[in-house]
Amino acid sequence: MSQINETEWIWRDGNFVRWADATIHVLSHSVQYGSAVFEGIRCYSTNQGPAIFRLQSHFERMMGSCKIYRMDPPWTVEQLVEAAKELVRRNNMSACYLRPMVLRGYGASSMVPFASPIETFLPCWPWGAYLGAGAHEDGVDAQVSSWNRVAPNTIPTMAKIAGNYLSGMLVKMQALADGYAEGISLGPDGMLSEASGANLFLVKNGRIFTAPVDGTLLPGITRDTILTLAGDVQVPLNVQEMPRESLYLADEVFFCGTAVEITPVRSVDKIPVGKGKPGPVTRALQERFRQTVTGEIPDAHGWLTHVN
Ligand code: PMP
What we know:
Helix content is 26%, strand content 27%. By secondary structure, it is an alpha+beta fold. It has two domains: 9-125, Aminotransferase class 4, branched-chain amino acid transferase, N-terminal domain (D-amino Acid Aminotransferase, Chain A, domain 1, 2-Layer Sandwich), CATH 3.30.470.10; 135-293, Alpha-Beta Barrel (D-amino Acid Aminotransferase, Chain A, domain 2), CATH 3.20.10. The chain is globular, with a radius of gyration of 19 Å.
């Protein structure tokens, strides 16, 4: 199970505080109601030192999540980028996971949140393969969850906010209890949506498929990365709705996200995906992704923020 590995410093609203001092009150609005916007970002080791992947995009999405929830943190994306670089340097990380959070603090007692201050935190810690050792190489076993994703215009899934993860938690716990590494959710209309903490891609007859941004899934930054990398490796791509059974007919299936990176799925509901092993398109994308994040190939898309 993934556990947080402590580091020394956390950036908190313009200052660096010790790990143990980054505390909030138990009655903070975010604790009561789940109103904490956040991001998950990876910093990779490169031969020019640590580089944070798509840092700007993550902070832009975070500001978008804040906007949806009428939160107005007093920081610009540029200031947060500088804070993130300084954080990685101070904590002496060569590679790590960053978890910015904008939350509503202590004050408001009800659904009206405005009496609570907006507080911004930026921690980081070392984090390896999210779905366990061997997941990237061998693939994982997944199930279709009995928990659907939320319907459009109920809770906005384009916002990455703590409360949304109640859904993901149910999906993930059910998958683990049933002996799977991950669960795949359908949207309310029964079409494929996403995994508990990752987007979903299928490969069929040499084409890549993923679900559209339909109000049931988080538009992942890794998903967006793959939409570009597919062009780089010259694999045609369709963004379209897909029924559940396309999982069983796919040649390849993979998850993508900051935490899972690109993780092949070798079976769904105990039905082997293709030959039950990661396939060539997934492999090619994994390799291109690895070369991209580690700076082994030129950063043609401007995705790396070097820390030093
Ligand atoms: N969907 C959900 C529900 C997620 O939590 C994540 C991880 N942030 C993703 C998709 C993938 O998003 P990203 O590639 O931006 O990490």
